[in-house]
């Protein structure tokens, strides 16, 4: 913002710190979801799931792995670029990774909830709840903030 009294380096430092705070929230969510998904195959009932449920599980697991990859990648980037005067590039790349990671996280959460409803209730409920949840994420995560810009 032009009304802040800060140098470009101070702005990149502030942006980096704000991004780290955002990533901490997202990383916690994706790590809990990933841990949950990694334990499912060790449940005795897992052998009884249908092919559609197995496919839903695999896709959701992969989406969660991709969310984890993108949301934790800024840590690795920071380690490699630390003290190299590349804060601008670090902030830009990490911001892009966070945006992509949030999309994967959104799809992962919808997939996990879809899977649970598919197994516990019925496919029709899974579709209805998954669609409603998917739209809710889009509205709350993307439409509301875009309207406030």
Automatic annotation (TrEMBL):
Q: What is this protein called?
A: DUF6328 family protein
Record bears the keyword Transmembrane helix: yes
Q: Which UniProt keywords apply?
A: Membrane, Transmembrane, Transmembrane helix
Segments crossing the lipid bilayer: 23-43, 55-76, 97-117, 123-144
Q: Name one Pfam family in it.
A: DUF6328
Which InterPro entries does the entry link to? DUF6328
